[in-house]
Design a protein that fits this description.
By secondary structure, the chain is an alpha+beta fold. It has two helices and six strands. The chain has one domain: TATA-Binding Protein (2-Layer Sandwich), CATH 3.30.310. 22% of the residues are buried.
Amino acid sequence: MFEPGMFEYGLKTGDLSEEEIIKIFKKANGKVAKEIHDSRIPKGLNMKKYTGPLGRSTPDLEPPEYDHIYWFRHRVSNLFLELYPNREKNGRVKFSDEGIIWNLYVTLMSDYPPKLSEYDPIQEFGSRVMKELFQTLPCEKVLIKKYAPGEDRL
């Protein structure tokens, strides 16, 4: 269902609170980590909440002004997620699609980390987390962009 690549999704979460969304992210990660049962994958989600100046998606754009964004990743994983509000502090809207509250940037790498054997499920981790996340997150998910290799983010 989820193939390697870089994607931007809009999440129409409505009244779903930020805390509930984060809990769903953590639960999806934990469930798949337990199912794969590999010591290279931590059972807990490595989540960082960043505030302040967050950089630009491309050099010629003004930096976004968010209260905070979340980064989810593991050192030994083929999945990186960035969850951030669709509306910046200054009122700018990233994606104009009606009802998008949060944006989810996804990087899913192929052939990483290296398999230890032919039957090693480590490379399934990212796609399985995404599948679980999209099944359990009770909102509409809108694919905004599938990025070509090397393409700058919107």
